[in-house]
Amino acid sequence: MASTTISQYHGSDMQMFHKGHFSDVVVKCGDRAWMLHKSILASRSKWFNKVIKDQAGGPSCNLVTIKMCGPNVAEVILRYIYGGTTEFHHLNEPAGDGAVLLMYTKVHPAARYFGLPTLANLCLDKVHTNLNLIAAQLRGDLPTGGGDKAPLIQAVTKAIRNFYAYDHEVVKKFSEIGLLRAEFVHFACDVWEILRRDREFMVFMRTEVPNFALDVGRTWQRPQGKDEKPVRCPSVED
User: Fold this and answer.
1) Tens of pLDDT along the chain (238 residues)?
2) Which residue, 208, 225, 206, is CA-closest to 217?
3) Fold of 11-83
4) Alpha helices, DSSP H only, in the chain?
5) Which SMART domains match (predicted)?
6) Is the distance from CB of 186 to CB of 229 less than 8 angstroms?
7) Among positive and negative, which fits the CA dihedral 151, 112, 210, 218?
8) CA–centroid distance for 57 within its chain
9) What is the β-pairing status of strands 25-29 and 63-65?
10) Do 85 and 3 contact (CB within 8 A), yes or no?
11) pTM of the model
12) What secondary structure, in 3-state letters, does 80-146 show?
């Protein structure tokens, strides 16, 4: 997968990330650990800035533990902080249909959590593009690469399952829904006539992600003439 580079970062920072030279903090996530640098982390991430300040002078001042995501997502976050790049191809992630969609779905909430709005927006755009492509393939506007639509639906199912496991709260009004959550709802509405004929997907909605089913159902219940869909915007800092 090609990486996206942000010009403000320097190659020397990535060398420090890989080699750990002059490290003054250990960042741990699951069974992984990185020898890193407080000044770089604190200056580029709101979350790290707060944690490092709060722990200053304490017994754990040289250790930061990440708990909100797994090691692979944490590494994407750290690589972005150091090099401004999003590289997933080196990770031990499943390949095949939907791998890119699934990974960006995992990274988006982590980017928001760590205070990286540019990365969060990048993930949002990638999810939007991937869902549009899958929708076009399901409708027959683009070839599926074999004619079988089941793998496409399965790919979206994996991404929705992962995201709603994280963002599982009931939202009373569609206008209050998060941007990434809205992308999945818009996708489902766009190709609903296809999805509703897929028995496995309908069972998945009812049994595994009932809040997603509520979100989709709510879009059909809006009073005529009222559009409550959240507008996609270039910032997710709120």
Assistant:
1) 444 445 556 678 888 888 888 889 999 999 999 999 999 999 999 999 999 999 877 777 789 999 999 999 999 999 999 988 877 665 555 555 578 888 899 999 999 999 999 999 999 999 999 999 999 989 887 765 556 788 899 999 999 999 888 776 666 665 567 888 889 999 999 999 999 999 999 999 999 999 899 888 877 655 444 454 444 333 333 3
2) 206
3) Potassium Channel Kv1.1; Chain A (3.30.710)
4) 11-19, 38-44, 46-55, 71-83, 99-113, 117-139, 150-166, 179-190, 192-195, 199-207, 210-220
5) BTB
6) yes
7) negative
8) 34
9) parallel
10) yes
11) 0.79
12) HHHHCCCCCCCCCCCCCCCHHHHHHHHHHHHHHHCCCHHHHHHHHHHHHHHHHHHHHHHHCCCCCCC
> What is the Cα–Cα distance from 54 to 197, expressed in whole angstroms?
53
Q: Please, are residues 188 and 163 in contact by the beta-carbon 8 Å criterion?
A: no
Distance (Å, whole) CA 156 – CA 188 = 10
Q: What is the DSSP letter of 223?
A: P
Tell me the residue type at 79: R
CA proximity to 128, closest of 198, 181, 205: 181
| Domains of the chain, residue spans | 11-83, 99-220
CB atoms within 10 A of CB 150: 12
**What is the DSSP code (8-state) at residue 147?**
S
Please give the Cα distance from 20 to 35 (Å, whole number).
5
Give the span between the Cα atoms of 166 and 164, in whole angstroms.
Answer: 5
